[in-house]
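All the exercises in this workshop are built on plain-text protein records. The record below serves as our worked example for the rest of this section.
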Amino acid sequence: MADFTVRTAEQLPLLLQAFRKQAGLTQAAVALRLGITQQTLSALERNADKVSADRLLALLSILGVELVLRQTSDSPAAPPSTGPNW
């Protein structure tokens, strides 16, 4: 499958739904595996910009999708040596 560059949270709902359908999974089946209701998954798909990182990563795992972070070409030349300063 092709790679998808996601630059805004508004792109997530359609992508999550498309990946779920491509995997041949219903909302009910995915919700069961996540331990939530179908209604909660439906809301999660519609409002993906508000979902926690943990839940998003769990959902992506169920869908067989991996999250890859990559610096853009206009990013600083060298990555930070100690990681993010949060």
Summary: The chain has a mean pLDDT of 88. Residues 27 and 41 are 7 Å apart (CA to CA). The longest helix spans residues 12-22. Helices lie at 12-22, 27-34, 38-46, 53-63.
